[in-house]
Every structure is written in structure tokens, then in C-alpha cells.
Amino acid sequence: MRVLPLSFAVVLAVASALGGLLVLPGGARAQQQASPGTASSSGGSLSQDDIARMLPSTDMGANAARNADPHLAPVNDSPATPFDAAPIPHNPLAPDAQAIGAKTCVACHSLENVQASHSLHVASFRAGAANTGPQAACESCHGPGSEHAKNPTAPGSIIAFTHGSATTPQTQQEVCLGCHAGGARQHWIGSVHQERGLSCSDCHNPMARLSPEGVLAKPSINEVCATCHKDIMAKFNRRSHMPLPEGQMSCVDCHNPHGTLTRPLLKTDTVNETCYTCHAEKRGPFLFEHAPVRESCLNCHDPHGSNQQTLLVAPLPMLCQQCHTMTRHPNDLQVPTNLGNGSTPDERLMGRACLTCHTNIHGSNNPSGSRFHK
Ligand code: HEC
Ligand code: HEC
Ligand code: HEC
Ligand code: HEC
Ligand code: HEC
Ligand code: HEC
Ligand code: HEC
Ligand code: HEC
Ligand code: HEC
Ligand code: HEC
């Protein structure tokens, strides 16, 4: 049952991909008929629609699933500025520079060009219309290059994306946001990553094809996050963990690294809403609610991993006894004679401990389940 919501998301993704295949070629044909003389429809070159169709669908805001869920606020995903409409960004350190075209860059940077030719952005620019796309293939990100070409070693003469360069992270971000504002990035400004001086290129590298999707700087999302968050990644190696190291989940199932209104970068308004996206059966409603479950799943679970069973933050029965000391069960449960090898073993300390009797710990719908026995 628990895997159902996941497979539903897969079905959605497949369905929308199929939808794209079935619908878009028709749209592209209609466009070509309407404008038979344009450059983009001649000689078998790809249109903007073709490129959009070929790209894998990324779901940063979990939009498809999210927008279908009545409990969540819908995501307004604005599409990127198309390659054919690429602006040449302003370089504040070379305010008078003019665009010189990609051919000139490639003349000196042939090595980078070999790599970049396989990358999504440069390949897409080259697939575009004869004079707009290919010419803008480098300067749409690096800014106008005339001063750099004259004096390549002058710091800041071209927009660079490495931490040691003269270009500020501010300028670097503005380049990418010039085409990728809004959508999943509407809360980038002021987010913890932005404020700690990260730039888009700490996680993305558009100069080579290093990941199957997402233009990432590492082959997978989890590896990207692990470059800085080694401690969190290590927790996923504990005895109990969700299947993230196994590749079935990633950090962005729960977090949006581009910034959110919720700490710490959670994609939903509360922790529990994040958990319900996959563990929907825990949402209830229940006839008898267990107060700490409603308050936050983190009262008992650590989402990144635990050395206890089922991601619990403390072993049973101590977990329960943190809150339940003055119950009608005796308080002096934990004496040596009560342990499994003692003289009077107490079943409340053995095996599943409290859960032996209180089985429905997340809530009960049974009319006589007020103690979560049923
Ligand atoms: C005349 C040859 C030449 C041309 C033309 C040229 N570059 Fe460069 N570029 C260089 C050299 C040499 C360096 C290394 C400078 C250094 O190490 O200080 C460099 C460095 C760079 C850097 C790194 C800058 C930094 O501060 O780290 C970028 C980015 C770059 N070039 C992009 C481009 C782009 C985009 C174009 C086209 C608009 C271009 N280059 C045209 C020779 C050239
Ligand atoms: C989508 C934006 C984008 C496009 C298009 C692009 N670049 Fe880059 N380029 C980057 C980023 C980001 C980096 C930093 C990569 C990294 O983290 O190592 C970079 C790095 C470089 C560097 C290395 C400089 C350094 O700081 O070490 C050179 C040289 C360069 N690009 C040249 C080019 C050339 C030539 C083209 C056109 C064929 C091109 N770029 C197209 C974004 C772009
Ligand atoms: C000229 C506009 C333009 C600029 C500048 C630009 N991009 Fe893009 N980018 C696009 C378009 C168009 C797409 C493909 C359509 C889409 O995914 O929305 C895209 C796709 C992407 C994707 C998604 C790839 C995928 O697999 O879906 C990422 C990530 C990305 N860009 C990052 C960056 C970064 C980082 C920078 C700055 C270094 C940057 N882009 C600069 C236009 C741009
Ligand atoms: C802390 C890491 C990190 C930083 C910083 C970051 N990204 Fe991303 N970005 C990701 C990850 C991870 C994905 C998901 C890729 C996937 O789904 O395959 C992603 C996805 C994207 C996408 C494609 C999905 C979408 O929402 O359309 C775009 C475009 C993008 N990022 C642009 C940017 C831009 C622009 C910046 C800088 C303002 C930036 N990113 C900064 C990690 C980061
Ligand atoms: C280049 C380093 C770097 C990378 C890569 C990186 N982060 Fe971070 N991240 C940071 C820094 C720095 C902080 C701030 C830590 C602090 O203040 O203690 C942070 C904080 C966070 C926080 C806590 C936010 C809060 O409000 O406390 C989360 C969640 C997070 N990152 C998730 C991610 C995810 C998911 C990825 C991968 C997509 C990622 N990070 C990639 C550097 C990075
Ligand atoms: C199942 C959802 C989920 C997944 C997957 C997940 N996180 Fe978290 N993460 C959370 C929640 C919930 C919190 C809030 C924890 C708290 O407040 O104690 C959190 C907190 C954080 C924090 C803030 C500080 C801390 O130590 O708790 C960082 C950093 C972080 N996550 C990074 C990551 C990284 C990196 C990955 C991938 C390796 C990841 N998370 C995967 C749900 C998740
Ligand atoms: C993206 C989907 C997803 C999200 C979001 C998610 N989970 Fe999970 N969770 C899973 C999957 C998949 C499993 C493994 C199920 C299995 O093996 O049967 C799992 C397993 C668990 C388990 C059982 C672990 C064990 O060792 O048996 C617990 C407890 C759990 N999740 C708690 C949470 C909490 C708390 C949250 C919110 C912070 C959360 N989950 C968010 C997908 C998710
Ligand atoms: C009062 C403590 C407590 C809270 C709060 C709590 N859980 Fe649990 N959870 C447990 C215990 C104890 C188990 C082990 C149950 C077992 O082994 O039968 C468990 C098991 C699970 C499991 C795996 C077995 C199953 O029942 O599917 C999932 C998934 C899970 N919890 C999700 C959640 C989510 C989501 C929340 C928040 C809505 C949450 N839990 C809140 C105590 C708690
Ligand atoms: C974070 C504190 C907390 C934890 C941990 C916790 N509980 Fe509770 N539990 C409560 C609260 C608060 C109530 C509601 C008490 C009330 O309504 O008087 C409650 C109610 C109950 C009830 C119903 C009793 C009643 O008076 O209605 C049972 C049974 C129960 N918990 C068992 C457990 C078990 C077993 C565990 C361990 C798996 C556990 N609890 C863990 C806080 C907690
Ligand atoms: C052998 C079965 C059994 C085990 C094991 C057990 N309980 Fe109970 N528990 C009960 C029964 C039966 C009741 C209901 C008594 C009643 O309603 O008169 C109860 C009632 C409770 C209540 C409600 C008390 C009240 O004042 O109404 C709490 C809280 C509770 N148990 C917590 C725990 C905790 C914590 C553990 C583990 C340390 C535990 N139980 C282990 C059978 C068990």
C-alpha cells in the first residue's frame, strides 16, 4: 500500500511524457504550415517545441502531483525564456563590451567547446535558428566578449562562474535567473543557500553533460547535495532509512534547494504535509488521534535515518515513556527483574514493547480504539 502514491507519481510522469509526444508534434506541424517561410522550419532543423519535447521532465516543485492534491497550494511554474529569445546579460565589470559571437570564443576555447557541445544549453542554441541561436551560444551566459577577446587575462572582462573569479555570485545568479526566474526559484533570493553565498553553478554545470537530467554538476541529485552535506548523507547509511541510497528517492523529494517559505527548505508548508505526500494513509482523519502524531512526525521519527527500528528517534519503550510516565502502567517498569532474562519478565519491555498492545500508534478508527489497541 505504501508504495502506491509513488507509483501513481510514476504513472503521472509517464502519462504527461506520452501526452507531450502525442500532442506536440501536431502543434509543431500546425506551426510549420502557418509559417512555411521561416528559417526554423527549413532544412530539418529543430523548433523550440521539438527541443521542449525532447527534454526530460523535471519536477522540482512536484508540480503534477502537487497541483492535483487539494491539500497543497498549487505551484506556478513559469517556463524558461526560450533559447531563440536569449538576452545577452550585462557584465558590470565590462560595461562597454560588445557581443562578438560564439565562433570567436570557440577559436580560443576549443577544448571547452568540445565538452559543451554535448550539453543541453549549447546543443540547444546550436539547434536554433541560423543567426540568433548559434551566435548566442556562449555570450548568453558569459556576457559580451569584445573586451575579453582583446585582453583575455583581465579579471572580470568576461562573466565567470567559479568562486575564485572576479565576477560576484550576484552577477552569476542574475545570468541564470534572467531566463529561469519564478517557478521553483521564486524564493531563491533570501534562501539559506543564496545567503550563504552559493551560486547556481555550485550545483549545476551547464558546460558538460554530467547528469542525465537537471544539468547537474554531479551524476545524481544526492551526490550534488553530498558534496556539502556529508553528515546528512551519512545518516542514510544507518540501520533504518528510507530508500534514498538505493536510488529510489532523492533529497529534493522533500527539500527544494532553491528556497522555500518553510524551514528547512521543505517543499510543503509543514513537516507532516511533506510526509503525507508519500505516506497518505497517515493523514487520517482518525476517530482517535494520537496528539504527537498530529503535531509532528518528527516527535518520533528522524527522516534522514536512525539506528533504531523504523526511523525512531529513541528505542522502545523509552520513546513512549518520554511522554507517558504517569500512566496506569507501573512507573518502575525498567528494573532488572522485568527484563527478558530476569525473574519476572514484563512483556511491556520485550519484543515490540508497548506496541504489542498499542498497535495502531498513529491513530485508530475503531469505536473502541481510544487506547490505540485496535
Ligand atoms: C583570444 C583568445 C580568446 C578569446 C577570443 C576568448 N577567450 Fe576566454 N579566455 C582566454 C584565455 C587565455 C583565458 C584564461 C585567462 C586567465 O587564465 O587569466 C580565458 C578565460 C576565460 C574564462 C574564465 C575567466 C575567469 O575569470 O576565470 C571564461 C569564462 C572565458 N574565457 C569565456 C570566453 C567566452 C565566452 C568567449 C567569447 C565571447 C571567450 N572566452 C573568448 C582566451 C580567449
Ligand atoms: C548556460 C550557460 C552557459 C553557456 C551557454 C556557456 N557557459 Fe561556459 N560556463 C558556464 C558555467 C556555469 C561555468 C562554470 C562551470 C564550473 O562550475 O566549472 C562555465 C565555465 C566556462 C569556462 C571555464 C572558465 C572558468 O571559470 O574556469 C569557459 C572557458 C567557458 N565556460 C566557455 C564557454 C564557451 C566557449 C561557451 C560556448 C561554446 C560557453 N562557455 C557556454 C555557463 C555557460
Ligand atoms: C537564454 C536563456 C537561458 C539561460 C541564460 C540559462 N538557461 Fe537554463 N535553460 C534554458 C532553456 C530554454 C531550458 C530548457 C527548457 C526548460 O527546461 O525549461 C533550460 C534548461 C535548464 C535546466 C533544466 C534541464 C532539465 O534537464 O530539465 C537547468 C537545470 C538549467 N537550465 C540551469 C541553468 C543555469 C544554472 C544557468 C546559468 C549558468 C542557465 N540555465 C542559463 C534557458 C536558459
Ligand atoms: C543547492 C543546489 C542547487 C542550487 C544552488 C541551485 N540548484 Fe537548480 N536544481 C538543483 C537540483 C538538485 C535540481 C533538480 C534536478 C532534477 O530534477 O533532475 C535543480 C533543478 C533546476 C532546474 C530544472 C527544474 C525546474 O525547476 O525547472 C532549473 C531550471 C534550475 N535548477 C535552475 C537553477 C538556477 C537558475 C539556480 C541559481 C539561481 C539554481 N538552479 C541553483 C540544485 C540546485
Ligand atoms: C556548495 C555547498 C552546498 C551544496 C552543494 C548544498 N548545500 Fe545545502 N546548505 C549549504 C550551506 C552552507 C547551508 C547553511 C548551513 C547552516 O547555516 O548551518 C545549507 C543549508 C541547507 C539546509 C538547511 C536549511 C535551513 O533552513 O536550515 C537544507 C535543507 C539544505 N541545505 C539542503 C540541500 C540540498 C537538498 C542540497 C542538494 C540539492 C544541498 N543542500 C546542496 C551548502 C550546500
Ligand atoms: C523524507 C523527507 C526528507 C528527505 C528525503 C531528506 N530530508 Fe532533509 N530534512 C527533512 C525534514 C523533515 C527536516 C527537518 C528536521 C528537523 O527540523 O529536525 C530536514 C532537515 C534537513 C537539514 C537541516 C538540518 C538538520 O540537520 O536536520 C538539512 C541540511 C537537510 N535536511 C539536508 C538533506 C539532504 C542533503 C538530503 C539528501 C541526502 C535530505 N535532507 C533528505 C526531510 C527530508
Ligand atoms: C517521496 C516519498 C516519501 C516521502 C516524502 C516520505 N517517505 Fe517515508 N518512506 C518512503 C518509502 C519509499 C519508504 C520505504 C517503504 C517500504 O520499504 O515499504 C518509506 C519508509 C518510511 C518509514 C519506515 C522505515 C522502516 O525502516 O521501515 C518511516 C518511519 C517513514 N518512511 C517516515 C517518513 C516521515 C516521518 C516522512 C516525512 C518527514 C516521510 N517518511 C516522507 C517514501 C517517502
Ligand atoms: C508517537 C510516536 C510516533 C509519531 C509521532 C509518528 N510515528 Fe510513525 N511510527 C511510530 C512507531 C512506534 C512505529 C513502528 C510501528 C511498528 O513497528 O508497528 C512507526 C512506524 C511508522 C511507519 C512504518 C510502518 C507503518 O505503519 O507504515 C511509517 C511509514 C510511519 N511511522 C510514518 C509516520 C508519519 C508519516 C508520521 C507523521 C504523520 C508518524 N509516523 C508519526 C511512532 C510514531
Ligand atoms: C511526544 C510525546 C508522546 C510520545 C513520544 C508518545 N505519546 Fe502517547 N500520547 C501523548 C499525548 C499528548 C497523548 C494524549 C493524552 C491525553 O489526551 O490525555 C497521548 C495519548 C496516548 C494514548 C491514549 C491514552 C489516553 O489517555 O487517551 C496511548 C495508549 C498512548 N499515547 C500510547 C503511546 C505509545 C505506546 C507511545 C510509544 C510508541 C506513545 N504514546 C508515545 C504524547 C506522546
Ligand atoms: C499487555 C498489553 C499492554 C502493554 C504491553 C502496554 N499497555 Fe498500555 N494499556 C494497556 C491497556 C489494556 C490499557 C487500557 C486500560 C484501560 O483503559 O483501563 C492501556 C492504557 C494505556 C494508556 C492510557 C492510560 C490511561 O491513564 O488511560 C497509556 C498512556 C499507555 N497504556 C501507555 C503504554 C506504554 C507507554 C507502554 C509501554 C511502556 C504500554 N502502554 C504497554 C495494555 C498494554
Description:
The chain has helices at 4-34, 48-54, 63-68, 102-108, 110-116, 120-127, 139-142, 146-150, 169-180, 192-195, 221-226, 230-235, 271-276, 291-295, 318-321. The longest helix is centred in the first third of the chain and has 31 residues, at 4-34. With 374 residues, the chain is an all-alpha fold. It has 15 helices and no strands. Helices cover 32% and strands 0% of the residues. Among the domains are: 90-159, no CATH class; 169-267, no CATH class; 285-374, no CATH class. One heme C (HEC) binds at residues 2, 6, 240, 242-243, 248-249, 253-254, 271, 274-275, 277-279, 297, 301, 303, 310-311.
Give a brief description:
Keywords: Signal. InterPro entries: Decahaem_cyt-c_DmsE, Multihaem_cyt_sf, Multiheme_Cytochr_ET, Paired_CXXCH_1. With 374 residues, the chain is mostly helical.
